Amino acid sequence: MALQASPFPNGFVAGVHAVGWAFILPCFWFLDRLIAVCKSTTLERTQRLEQECYLHPLKVFFGSIIFFILFLATAPLAFLGFLLWAPLQACRRPFYYHRETPSSPEKEIHRGFELVGRASFSFATANLCLLPDSLARFNNLGHTQLRASAIGQRIVQGVCRPHIRIFVDSPSSCGTLSPSNSILPTVNSATYGATDRQPQPPVSHHPDSAVPASKSSSDVVCVPCDDTEETSAESSPPLLNSNQNSNQQGRSGHRSAPRALLSQGLRQQDDVPWEVSSLFPADIDILCLEEVFDKRAARKLTDVLKPVFGHILYDIGAYACQPPCRCTSFKFFNSGLFLASRFPVLEAQYHCFTNSRGEDALAAKGLLSAKVLIGQNQKGKRVVGYFNCTHLHAPEGEGEIRCEQLNMVTKWIGDFQAANSLPDEDVVFDVLCGDFNFDNCSPDDTLEQNHCLFEEYRDPCRAGPGKEKPWVIGTLLEQPTLYEDDINTPENLQRTLESDELRQQYISPPVPAMGTPLVYPEAGQPWIGRRIDYILYRENSIAKRCRTEIEEVTFITQLAGLTDHIPVGLRLNVSMDSESADD
Fold it and tell me: Which of 29, 50, 83 is the last residue of a domain?
């Protein structure tokens, strides 16, 4: 059944809901401003000192009085609106669905499997902290609406750039060339930029040409070197397209990335090509965002991203009181999840965690599962993918709650796929991502690190329970330092993350177990920090003759100064044996 654009069953209910929210909004906004005027970010405090502005105490004093009076004046109207708004949440579907009609149906499908039986898929996840402005300031982030527009524009800038592959004839004698650093313009401002400019629609993502699974925006740059050493007996192919297998067999028997990938800024370690990039990966197929709690910010993001991602689910979650076994306690905020996809969304389902506690119980955190249409294979069989995103319980020291939520996630994903799988289709990827709120190095997170979820889904950054691979970088920034010079621009943050010494100053350290002193890192091990943002994938749930290889893992610095998390990207290369079409 096709997804409905509105979460309400008919226009009348939607209209009553809109009237109720219109009555609530002024009171809510005045309360938000009342708190925000009293809470400054470190950036604002620094700017006041530099400008020698001493009027701020007067602004706080009179602003607090004015907003408090306006809050009291609009409270009766808000109460009336609440009486209209709250009962309607029981019949509300858990998300809005925006579909941007393409100029041609061909632009929404990937023809890689149809043409050559292989394709590359790119995913990214980011926690944006788009809370109401007053609450975001407790995380040292303000101006939620401006940040939402700026974040959307930066994502579009990165995603719509040409997917350039640079081939270096001799990597040993030529330096690393990264198109994200040396060729393309980037946003350097630590502030929120020009938020009134809208992005231009991108070029078609999936071309109609017969180039094997290659994106239309991909380019190849060949850089010869004169001082090459001994040449190989077998010459390397001069050109590599964007979907070429990045984990080919190397001399040592391990899979290694092609030189075109390594010369783009990627590095190879533990069979995983990885990169710290100042731009979002080009041609992201599915984007998962967390903590998009503010409704206006979600609409701003949708408006900016919709020329690129034609299918968007936002305002995901439940509000107010829900029927038993769906959500516990009154929900003031939605789940904060936001899903943007280039591919058509065939089915989507949301579940709310039933064991939330404390401040986390105010939000309808849960799991969103989606089934997307990729295209068809060489025999005309439909090709689909599963994508799941979640945001787990936040407070430290409550691993039992997160483990229960991981149990729910595992069950709900299985139920969703069992209910929506069809015999005449091939599943080519099954991805789970989001903010898990635990890492793989903190002694305090030992319970979650050993959860059976990691036996089903593969984490490219994980060497084992409690042990990260040596190249991994933490994704949680220290909030008080968000606007310091070393990390306030994408380029500066990129350089900082690549330095072990600098990274320790800005990435959150591991959490020790209660009553036990922290010894970190162990002797001879690198300093990594807390990586709480994950992209996982599994292979036992996809078509039997599909093979999945990691093309690249990316730590993205493009949102420097706009959020307290480092976005993560994953590109998978999926190949399908020709015989699989006969199954």
Answer: 83
Interatomic CA distance for residues 441 and 528, integer angstroms: 8
Q: pLDDT tens digit string along 41-72? A: 999 999 888 887 778 899 999 999 999 999 99
Tokens standing for residue 79:
């109460």
The per-residue DSSP string of 346-384 comes to: EEEEEEE-S---GGGGGB--EEEEEEEEEEE-TTS-EEE
Q: Which of 98, 110, 391, 565 is catalytic?
A: 565
Q: How many structural domains does the chain have? A: 2
Residue 185 lies in a domain: no
- Does residue 317 lie in a domain region? yes
Residue 6 domain-assigned?
no
CA distance 224 to 220: 13
Residue-wise pLDDT for 425-483, tens only, equals 999 999 999 999 999 999 999 999 999 999 999 999 999 999 999 999 999 999 999 99
Q: Which of 39, 62, 83 is the last residue before a domain boundary?
A: 83
Contact indicator for 26, 67 with CB cutoff of 8 Å: no
User: What are the percentages of helix, strand and coil residues in the chain, rounded to 5?
Assistant: 30, 20, 45
Q: What is the pTM of this model?
A: 0.84
Q: For residue 79, give its domain range.
A: 11-83
> Is 110 noted as a catalytic residue in this protein?
no
Residues 402 and 279 in one domain: yes
